[in-house]
């Protein structure tokens, strides 16, 4: 949506006296008056006002009250409270503020462009036109248009179809792209079109200040995707990838089953035989990201058959009975479990993994996963008491810790590793970012000390 501007020639409000009282409070620069949409320079305004005075008026009788000037930084700080309470994608709420004077308009546009949400290629093209319109009327030292953008949220098809030129967003820090319209055949092609420059090297195509990248509703998270992102965003510190939210629980059981086959939500064991294979390939693909600190991979580390067996609980009671017998069979192998894992940090020396139980974590686990009497229809394994029993929730949680430990040993800069999990007990605050599959998200925190790496689900 393009912001609206005043249709009055001078860009002043209807009550000119209010504008005159506010102008002395703000420092003015010559570049601020070069835009056609801004108010006239103070010298021009004074001349026009003197012409409107009657000839009989004695200019010497006019007294001017001097008031202390208010720095524009203070005005900007005060204005931030106004913009924080308004929707970021609606210019209507800040339109009146922008009509006060040229400096206020500059503040309004800077806050408006700090975070933009694009829904179509046409809207992105309109933003680009506004950017070039602003830059053509200001000096190169002024920060206008896309220079103010720090966060860009857009669907993949908009960036693909629009004249996508990320080099214009020189101060972009966070890029979030949703791939809800892509699938098995189109995701790889779309990624190549968005992240490939026309003739220059891939790494110079994106701004160097971009430190946070989020891709949601992916069809699959694989090695090819990670290599493409690692070569394009070498300075990324926060990488969030997610595809597990594609499991649809909003309609009916057939829709849930169909969505489970349309996305690679659990790559083990069909794509990777075990977590060691998965972490080895993923860590090698992410090696170019030398500043990566927070990594989230929105895939389930439980076996893919867990979702299939969850559907069998309601479709075929006989198969459900056989599953229970297999779960409690004495031949069923028992694995190590724990809530705190540690291992030598040196990658060349593969020492044994130490498993221990944190008493605080044990208390939190006892409160998780309590099934309600009336479950949603449909629902995933996270609300199924049978899946918790048959799937062995403690073993799945331990597998998530083991995978995080392997990544932490191979990528030395990591501080946290996140996964999608059916057995999470993470408590979310109202201010938390609800991105991707945030309800089924678990975060593992990493501690490096005394030559060892330790991981657990609580901050150290």
Give an account of the 3D structure:
This protein is an alpha/beta fold. The chain has two domains: 87 residues, no CATH class; 246 residues, no CATH class. 35% of the residues lie in helices and 12% in strands. It has an eleven-stranded mixed sheet with strand order 1-2-3-4-5-6-9-10-11-7-8. Helix 3 packs across helix 5 and helix 12 crosses helix 13. The longest helix is centred in the last third of the chain and has 18 residues. The chain is globular, with a radius of gyration of 29 Å. The two termini are 44 Å apart. This is F-box domain-containing protein.
pLDDT average, as an integer? 75
Q: Sheet bearing the most strands, described?
A: 11 strands, mixed
| pLDDT < 50 runs, ≥5 residues | 1-39, 330-334, 364-373
| DSSP strand tally | 11
Overall outline: globular
Query: Which structural category do the helix and sheet elements fall into?
Result: alpha/beta
SSE succession: HHHHHEHEHEHEHEHHEHHEEHHHEEE
Helical fraction equals 25-40%
Which band does the percent of strand residues land in? 5-15%
Number of continuous helical runs: 16
Strand order of the largest sheet: 1-2-3-4-5-6-9-10-11-7-8
Overall domain count:
2
Q: What Rg, in angstroms, do the CA atoms define?
A: 29 Å
What is the terminal separation in angstroms? 44 Å
Region (Disordered): 34-62
Protein name: F-box domain-containing protein
Keywords:
11 strands; alpha/beta; 460 residues; 2 domains; F-box domain-containing protein; 16 helices
